[in-house]
């Protein structure tokens, strides 16, 4: 059985997609077989791998709503990826009255488990049915948090939602850790934000903050991870370090 | 009748909340009476005005689902604001089977129209029912776009959704303009992103990009707009300039 990691935070723009992609590639570099899964209708993970969400057929919507095998929506790029497109936005309504609507993703991924060591799932900036499906399919959740005030506040709500998923749908799911992202050590605000995170969440906060650098915005233009786009950079090494920390901490 | 402006973009973290707040305060500084409306369950607009979303009762959920008057969920701070809390996340499901579910907000705001010149509505990072309610209530939409590649791609989808709202719910709603945000003129990536925006959207792009500065992250900690937190700053003046441009362009 592959280990399934979901990357979730309902706050927008905190580097969920960036962390899913680069963590996935870092695990693959270590020799693990990794599948990326795009559960965001924006298709940013699909896009970041150089694919056009408007052109991919079938996609995650077809897997969740039309019963198409996940294998049919899987493409090989820098990572193997189950792609998504904007159609996926309609899946929330299409699934809402179906029995077992929260388990549709975990059922769809089941046939792929024996081919991978890890699955990394990107989620949209909300706690709706698509994210709930990812949390139900996951062994553990990694929570990227931007090192800014507005982003610090939403974590209590994510924990409450996770508690509900644990009680009703998936007893094993837990927060593997919190990743401070877009960290700018030159600002007092950035340093204070990380301090607040460590005070409130202690060991749950991974020791490697991911520093702010424009390389993260440049890499998706080329359809590459930052590990491929700038392999020797501090940015790439931060995600390699994070992957090592996630594996060694046995939090997953 | 007040003019109603919605601030929308389903991409997360592009400065929707920041633009709603600072644009609202800039209009108020010019002497207009302004009401802020928080339609995001994260309650970031409520928070940015120094209020705790966990403590505010009643809030937007009660207005939309329990028929409480918007007046009851209105608090006076730097701006008058109809507050929201995480309960609002449950409104999408609660409203989904109600007749006229897309017009609930515009009906709720009707009694307040004669007391204000402008209403500014913040929306969550999605194109679900809460954002549709804001687009249905609005005269015009202002679209903040982060000057980075991943943020440029979602605009076509927003336009399609707006088209559906225009055809079925609100014939007058249109995009007043696109605001380039978090602009870093020192990076080639930033300059290219603005160039791409202007090539694709021409005059629709406001001439004032809002530059990246840590002041925008610092101001919400104090519960203040950047116009109050750093009144003589380039950041504050950028939003004053934007407000003048929005009013003079007669796009609203
Ligand atoms: N460490 C970093 N430094 C600078 N920029 C970053 C960093 N990580 C991500 N970014 C950039 O910030 C923007 C937001 O990141 P990303 O899209 O991964 O966030 P997200 O949480 O997935 O957003 P959404 O909520 O819309 O899904 C992107 O343009 C990305 O390139
Ligand atoms: N021009 C700017 N320069 C630097 N930081 C900014 C700027 N505008 C906003 N920010 C900061 O970027 C973060 C994201 O902004 P904001 O929360 O307003 O975006 P949003 O689109 O409302 O996010 P969400 O999609 O979660 O609702 C916040 O921490 C904010 O303080
Ligand atoms: Mg994303
Ligand atoms: Mg916001």
Bound molecules: adenosine-5'-triphosphate, magnesium ion
What structural class results from the helix and strand content of chain A?
alpha/beta
Shape of chain A: globular
**Rounded average pLDDT of chain A:** 96
| Helix proportion range of chain A | 25-40%
User: Count the helices of chain A. How many?
Assistant: 12
Largest sheet of chain A: 7 strands, mixed
Strand order of the largest sheet of chain A: 3-4-2-5-1-6-7
Count interface residues per chain for the largest interface. Answer: A-B, 38 and 38 residues
Quaternary structure: homodimer
Distance between the termini of chain A: 13 Å
SSE pattern of chain A: EHEHHEEHHEHEHHEHHHH
Task: Lay out the secondary structure.
The structure is a homodimer of 252-residue chains.
Chain A: E1 3-7, H1 16-29, E2 34-38, H2 44-48, H3 60-65, E3 74-76, E4 80-82, H4 91-95, H5 104-109, E5 118-122, H6 129-137, E6 140-146, H7 149-152, H8 155-168, E7 174-181, H9 188-201, H10 215-218, H11 226-229, H12 234-248
Parallel strand pairs in A: 1-5, 1-6, 2-4, 2-5, 6-7
Antiparallel strand pairs in A: 3-4
Helix pairs in contact in A: 1-12
The complex binds adenosine-5'-triphosphate (2 copies) and magnesium ion (2 copies).
One magnesium ion binds at residues 16-17, 40, 44, 122 of chain A.
């Amino acid at each position: 059985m592959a280990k399934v990691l979901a990357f979730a935070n309902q706050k927008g723009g905190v580097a969920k997609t960036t962390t899913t992609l680069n963590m996935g590639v870092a695990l693959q570099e270590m020799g693990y077989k990794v599948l990326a899964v795009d559960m965001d209708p924006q298709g940013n993970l699909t896009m970041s791998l150089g694919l056009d969400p408007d052109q991919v057929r079938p996609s995650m919507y077809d897997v969740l709503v039309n019963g198409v095998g996940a294998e049919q929506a899987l493409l090989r790029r820098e990572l193997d990826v189950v792609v998504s497109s904007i159609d996926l936005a309609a899946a929330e309504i299409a699934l809402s009255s179906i029995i077992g609507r929260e388990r549709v993703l975990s059922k769809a991924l089941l046939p792929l488990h024996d081919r991978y060591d890890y699955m990394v799932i990107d989620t949209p900036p909300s706690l709706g049915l698509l994210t709930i499906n990812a949390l139900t399919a996951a062994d553990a959740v990694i929570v990227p948090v931007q090192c800014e005030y507005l982003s610090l506040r939403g974590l209590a709500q994510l924990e409450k939602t996770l508690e509900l998923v644990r009680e009703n749908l998936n007893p094993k799911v837990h927060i593997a850790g919190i990743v401070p992202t877009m960290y700018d050590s030159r600002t007092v605000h950035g340093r204070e934000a990380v301090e607040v995170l460590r005070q409130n969440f202690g060991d749950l906060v991974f020791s490697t903050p991911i520093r702010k650098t424009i390389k993260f915005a440049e890499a998706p233009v080329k359809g590459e991870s930052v590990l491929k786009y700038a392999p020797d950079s501090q940015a790439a090494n931060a995600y390699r370090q994070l992957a090592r920390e996630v594996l060694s901490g046995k939090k997953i």
